[in-house]
Please model this.
Amino acid sequence: GEDVEQSLFLSVREGDSSVINCTYTDSSSTYLYWYKQEPGAGLQLLTYIFSNMDMKQDQRLTVLLNKKDKHLSLRIADTQTGDSAIYFCAESFTGTASKLTFGTGTRLQVTL
Amino acid sequence: DAGVIQSPRHEVTEMGQEVTLRCKPISGHDYLFWYRQTMMRGLELLIYFNNNVPIDDSGMPEDRFSAKMPNASFSTLKIQPSEPRDSAVYFCASNARDSFTIYFGEGSWLTVV
Model:
């Protein structure tokens, strides 16, 4: 199957770390992505990870991949109000230029 | 680069009318995707093209939907006749053959009343 699931909502205080989780069911996924969608806007690619990696760090973002449990997470360090958005994980099966299957999206709310 | 450009950004139309959504992909990109986003179903891939040729249209909901890509710089998604359940945000996206990055447009927000 190609189900990708996420929790719907996460609220954190400004300055704290946010952890957004995602589970997928198809072990043949080769690339996993995190996209950010701000209100009224399109999707912006934040980062991606190959299925043969465990972790990827990019500035405030850390992606962890547990292939055994089919679990992907995105950690945002020092969360800011500008990070408030919907975050989607997505998977593809054939790598480059492949169609994406998106998760349900997690709405991150950052409070002062 | 201007990114993926979609038009119109917003459209309100009456049930039964024809709707045409337009997309200009990023120059040089080989792949073009049409996605639909709704509260109930999330993001769904409708169809995608490679070098202007439709590759997978299994996500197109029904015959009322059609998509074309007459050249490398232009694609349309047409709904005829439109129904209220077609109300959604329609995203166009593109990427290059050797890239992991799919770029999305800002979306066309369609309301059918």
